[in-house]
Write the structure tokens for this entry.
Amino acid sequence: MRKLLLLGGGYGGMRILHKLLPNNLPDGVEITLVDKNPYHCLKTEYYALAAGTISDQHVRVAFPEHPKLNVHYGEVTDIDLEQKLVHLKDQSPITYDDLIIGLGCEDKYHNVPGADKYTCSIQTIDQSRETYQKLNNLGAGATVCIVGAGLSGVELASELRESRSDLKIKLFDRGKVILSNFPERLSKYVQTWFEEHGVEVINSANITKVEPNMVYNHDEPIPCDVVVWTAGIQPNYVVRKLNVEKDRQGRVILTKYHHLPQDEHVYVVGDCASLPYAPSAQLAEAQAEQIVQVLLKKWNNEPLPEELPPFKLKGVLGSLGKKSGFGMVGDRALTGRVPRLLKSGILWIYKYHSGA
């Protein structure tokens, strides 16, 4: 029996499972999924979990069930490419014939002193739960500093404003204008929303140090009660340890078929893969579909296509609380209620029809 070992049940991992199961997995192949959690987590919704506007159950989706799928719960600590072994914390290692690494990302602290010790995170479901506890245990009038005004920071700040209107929220942005990579009309819309809802956006920020109850912006101290870090990501530490070629962001460089140049049986999907796009759930799913195509060709002893088609990414959608949002669909900028409804609809379809 050929063993496909899938590390991580994130967006890429789930798409791989749904494309292979229940009917596309060839005879003679079985899958083992390794994940720390007994369910798939909707990472794109962690901001709302941390803000306290949705329940924990809202961000959990069951893994598929199939006789040829083994789900193994554990934490990956090391990957031995030469011996084809994956080591787990306090458990025996697991062997593989084909390996897909989808271990996701961690916060990147950019060598800011104290950032790793004194800030909260929304990178994992456990961290999001801890952040929820700290944010929602604050007393009235407390100050929350959110470092990083990308999509995660913007969504967290707006959701927290709706959840706790009594809090003072400061959002630190390195750019001269918020969401500077988006069209000006969209950036102005988001900036205006924050102004109207009492969220202070601090542009051209440079966080130089974090201490307990203190953030330093350009070395100027700013008192606060909780700091949440949303200022960048890096691949999982297990991937960072791998002795393989990586790009400047530490992501693994792959062939056009998404496997290691030196090992055609090891694939990398999602945030750890070096791709010409910003990491996202949508990108991980698109890449996962191509990995499945390659695996099926190989398992069936069929020639691989000369080229794989370019990814068709549909756009970006972000929320500003429950009633407003923003986004890019194709080349079109959307603001207001429509992008928020679109995002809610896409989430509903994913949760209840993701196997379709």
Q: What stands out?
A: The chain has two domains: 2-36+74-106+234-313, 109-231. The longest strand covers residues 29-35. Residues 281-299 form the longest helix (19 residues).
